[in-house]
């Protein structure tokens, strides 16, 4: 009898799931004509059709069957996926207002305390925090000590660190994390950290764990089944523990700034935010409060560290694999910059090959392949479909960076994608690693400066050498989820 009762109960649950799924599908069909896509299962949606370690590749494969605009169910949530350069540009650029909201991403929502900060927020909150962040970053780039000078200084410290390795094999991961993070730290916190600072190293380790965790299978499971995963133990919980540690560090720095704040002479981003908090302390719906300060700072600190440092780490691995390309950069550096002065951003326009290689590194590494989710702000007729307001949309940046219409060899590393027949740098509409439209990365300009100055400084001073046969170097991502993370490797920095 007990077995029969359990079986009957299980059948009731299954029937309820089927009914709920059917009702939701009918409701969505009534709201608009969503693009076609694979049939979802109750509760699971299309989860079984996604490869855990390569979700974005699974989504690209589905586009071959259902077209460049299709619907997939992540759990019980319908999501519209956009694939190829023309479609993504039409959405983000031509219809930027409609596609301009941030879509729901459970991991991001929990990490941002329900949509605070500049990355996860929407509406008036997003407008105010983004405007404030852009203006403040620009102001500190035009001050007595420009952002370029900060990067040049950090590049010198990094070159010194590499010189101290005396040509021995090293893992470059935290070398680049320390250098890149110090640039944003000097803007946000007002000073840099020594590379041996234990608290700083601990902070960077937690940041690295966060990026890897979000890109892992566990992170993806949380995004698809947040209510279930939120109640289960597992590695996904370490993501939030790491974020909490970083948030506490930021709170500590904010309190230190409060004690020494001079409203007439702001030293950094945090000072500016604290001054804005004072100015709006009597505004009931202000977005300038402690929660906003912590999350906006976390966004700048996190995004300003991991994406650029991972790109640099991946870039050197590619150059190890292609020593002929490295040698051409050496020649261009020697011709344009020489050995007696530091590279500056003005050199970029006179170094088309180096610039092309850096662009190709960003295209090929495809650090954020799915991009961040968007959400429709109103009903829209798009590509023949009536997509309702509130629908989550994934503009697949990977499909743009590997669009065969834009790039002759989409899955090969080829700097020629950005060089014309006269050897001059050539722009390409498919270059979209920072996304596009209203939600384009706030730190795009800073990131591009960092990539050029760090790579040119390293190659001005060192020749790269691999301790293993270059045929054994694997350019396939070690983790491939929210982000692409390169396989661990070591290299030697040989002084030139």
From TrEMBL:
Q: Mind telling me which PROSITE patterns this protein's record contains?
A: CYTOCHROME_P450
User: What does the entry give for GO biological process?
Assistant: epoxygenase P450 pathway; xenobiotic metabolic process
* Alphabetical list of InterPro entries matching this protein: Cyt_P450, Cyt_P450_CS, Cyt_P450_E_grp-I, Cyt_P450_E_grp-I_CYP2A-like, Cyt_P450_sf, Cytochrome_P450_fam2
Q: Per its record, what are the GO molecular function terms?
A: arachidonate epoxygenase activity; heme binding; iron ion binding; oxidoreductase activity, acting on paired donors, with incorporation or reduction of molecular oxygen, reduced flavin or flavoprotein as one donor, and incorporation of one atom of oxygen
Q: Does the keyword Heme apply?
A: yes
| CC cofactor | heme
User: What EC number is given for this enzyme?
Assistant: 1.14.14.1
What's the top EC group for this one?
A: oxidoreductase
- Kindly list the places in or outside the cell where this protein is found, as annotated in its UniProt entry: Endoplasmic reticulum membrane; Microsome membrane
Q: Which GO terms describe its cellular component?
A: endoplasmic reticulum membrane
The source organism is Xenopus laevis
SUPFAM superfamilies named among the record's database cross-references: Cytochrome P450 (SSF48264)
Q: Which CDD domains match?
A: CYP2
- Residues binding heme are 441
Q: Which PANTHER family match?
A: CYTOCHROME P450 2E1, CYTOCHROME P450 508A4-RELATED
Q: What family name appears in the similarity comment? A: Belongs to the cytochrome P450 family.
This protein's name: unspecific monooxygenase
Quick check: keyword Heme in the entry? yes
Q: Which domain of life is it from?
A: Eukaryota
Arranged from A to Z, the UniProt key words for this protein are: Endoplasmic reticulum, Heme, Iron, Membrane, Metal-binding, Microsome, Monooxygenase, Oxidoreductase
* Membrane topology classification: Peripheral membrane protein
